[in-house]
UniProtKB/TrEMBL annotation:
CDD domains: DRE_TIM_IPMS. This is 2-isopropylmalate synthase. Residues 392-516 are annotated as: Regulatory domain. It comes from Virgibacillus chiguensis. Belongs to the alpha-IPM synthase/homocitrate synthase family. LeuA type 1 subfamily. Pathway: Amino-acid biosynthesis; L-leucine biosynthesis; L-leucine from 3-methyl-2-oxobutanoate: step 1/4. Residues 4-266 form the Pyruvate carboxyltransferase domain. Pfam families: HCS_D2, HMGL-like, LeuA_dimer. InterPro entries: 2-IPM_HCS-like, 2-isopropylmalate_synth_dimer, AIPM/Hcit_synth_CS, Aldolase_TIM, LeuA/HCS_post-cat, LeuA_allosteric_dom_sf, LeuA_bact_synth, PYR_CT. Keywords: Amino-acid biosynthesis, Branched-chain amino acid biosynthesis, Cytoplasm, Leucine biosynthesis, Manganese, Metal-binding, Transferase. One of its GO terms (biological process) is L-leucine biosynthetic process. PANTHER family: 2-ISOPROPYLMALATE SYNTHASE 1, CHLOROPLASTIC-RELATED, HOMOCITRATE SYNTHASE-RELATED.
Length: 516
């Protein structure tokens, strides 16, 4: 069995999904979970794009030790220098440099001749090689490039020091047959190709990203790039969890395997969905809510008689477990701490204290506390940014019923410390709540999207709410969790407004630094 390395770009390409904006703490939590999952490479971000991304990449590089950390850079010296500053604390820092090679990109975007593109690519790879032992070079829009030109530039960037060659299907245009043949051609026509690893990176615009990735592997690629849940620009990227499970289940056909701990897939998927606000469709392969559900009577009968009649993947394989009681009202701090270790969650003593207090509050109302509940509680605390003054909920009250006009009363503490309160009516309870919150916050807000989900099952399950708002014209995501659906909805709304405030404070700090 050949090992296929998986290169996760959830924190870079995945974050480019419309409406997704992860802060440093959220990126770090996802990176730690990707490390637990057994990911070979983590592309932590694009350090030159912003100060925030630089700090997030640096924090991840300094923290993650069992997975190689990578950063993206343009073929520009300043980008490469910035990437090194962010990554130099990593155990195995890697850089990912890209430059377009298709005629349409070279002509209309780069406005460079093919000869100029070759010179730029080789010069910058050689420059990066002075500090990075591992240099990945990507031929952006490779699937629409001239193969003869690709072979020519690949030979030269390998001579310049590239250790990984990535041939992306940047716009999701290719088919498995075409993509596989391109990799075969490169292997046959680049004389020094054995000095580099071949990598594939597929987008899902035509729904073929996973199939294209596997076709590349069948033709010599030993690294697959993608994201958790397939998130990313436009229709997203290849879903790494789908690829890993496909290679496992069809090991009779594919002589390849990955290093992923498959039973961490569901938890990783849930964390990415929670922190990005990118909801997983119910029928999504491997991780969707219906992936192991059987509605048809014939299917149910078959599964009850023998699971393999209609179930090719066991839920346990990907970490879908029965949510049984593990801790309760009388469980102590030591048992709680042991559970966090079992879940693989590393927390500070202060966060551990907060999480335990939140757990004890939950046990006052919820008899059966599950792993998913604990994971949600700890993730919320780990990703909470409390470095600036924000809006906090003091009290809310709702009155609604089939014969009543929904009325919401809310009291908030503002960032300045002042307490404000008011009440509003509307056609529905959530509308009344959000109308009241809108009137209490100084920022101009507009609700774009609202979602509510449960963590696990049962009538006493934790509720998770996700919202997308425009705050003073900027799109911001927010999330909140509570046992009460309406409280979760309030917390999600305030979380979005507070994230906007934090962004503004950080922007002001950067301006102060610039003027000094």
């Amino acid at each position: 069995m050949s090992i296929i390395n998986l290169f996760d770009t959830t924190l870079r390409d995945g974050e480019q999904s419309p409406g997704v904006n992860l802060n440093k703490l959220e990126k770090l939590e996802i990176a730690k979970q990707l490390e637990r999952l057994g990911m070979d490479r983590i592309e932590a971000g694009f350090p030159a794009s912003s100060k925030g991304d630089f700090q997030a990449v640096k924090e991840i590089a300094d923290t993650i030790k069992n997975t190689s950390v990578t950063a993206l850079a343009r073929t520009v010296k300043s980008d490469i220098d910035t990437a090194w500053e962010a990554l130099k604390g990593a155990d195995e820092p890697r850089i990912h440099i890209f430059l377009a090679t298709s005629p349409i990109h070279m002509t209309y975007k780069l406005k460079k001749t093919p000869e100029e593109v070759i010179t730029t690519a080789t010069d910058m790879v050689a420059y990066a090689k002075q500090t990075f032992s591992q240099v990945q070079w990507s031929a952006e829009d490779a699937s629409r490039s001239d193969w003869e030109f690709l072979a020519q530039i690949i030979k030269k960037v390998i001579d310049a020091g590239a250790t990984v060659i990535n041939l992306p299907d940047t716009v999701g245009y290719t088919t498995p047959k075409e993509y596989g043949e391109m990799f075969h051609y490169i292997r046959m026509n680049v004389p020094n190709i054995e000095k580099a690893v071949l990598s594939c990176h597929c987008h899902n615009d035509l729904g073929m990203a996973v199939a294209n990735s596997i076709a590349a592997v069948e033709n010599g690629a030993t690294q697959i790039e993608g994201t958790i849940n397939g998130i990313g620009e436009r229709a997203g990227n290849a879903s790494l969890e789908e690829i890993a499970v496909a290679l496992k289940i069809r090991s009779d056909f594919y002589p390849y395997q990955t290093n992923l701990k498959l039973d961490e897939i569901k938890r990783t998927s849930d964390m990415v969905a929670k922190l990005t606000g990118m909801h997983i469709q119910a029928n999504k392969a491997i991780v969707g809510r219906n992936a192991f559900a059987h509605e048809s009577g014939i299917h149910q009968d078959g599964v009850l008689k023998h699971a393999s009649t209609y179930e090719i993947i066991t839920p346990e394989l990907v970490g879908v477990q029965a949510n049984t009681l593990f801790l309760g009202k009388h469980s102590g701090r030591h048992a709680f701490k042991d559970k966090l270790k079992e879940l693989g969650m590393r927390v500070t003593e202060d966060n551990m204290k907060q999480a335990f207090e939140a757990f004890k509050r939950l046990t006052d109302h919820k008899k059966e506390v599950t792993d998913d509940d604990i994971f949600t509680i700890v993730t919320e605390i780990q990703t909470n940014t409390a470095t600036v003054d924000k809006y906090t909920l003091e009290m809310f009250q709702l009155q609604y019923g089939s014969n009543n006009i929904p009325t919401a009363a809310v009291e908030l503490k503002t960032p300045s410390g002042k307490k404000v309160k008011t009440a509003c009516t509307a056609q529905g309870s959530v509308e009344a709540l959000y109308k009241t919150l809108e009137s209490l916050t100084e920022e101009k807000t507009r609700l774009i999207d609202y979602q509510i989900n449960s963590v696990g099952g049962g009538k006493d399950a934790l509720a998770e709410s996700r919202v997308q708002l425009t705050v003073n014209g900027e799109t911001v995501n927010g999330r909140g969790s509570a046992q009460d659906v309406m409280e979760a909805s309030v917390q999600a709304y305030l979380n979005a407004v507070n994230r906007y405030i934090i962004q503004q404070v950080n922007a002001e700090k950067k301006e102060v630094v610039k003027t000094q």
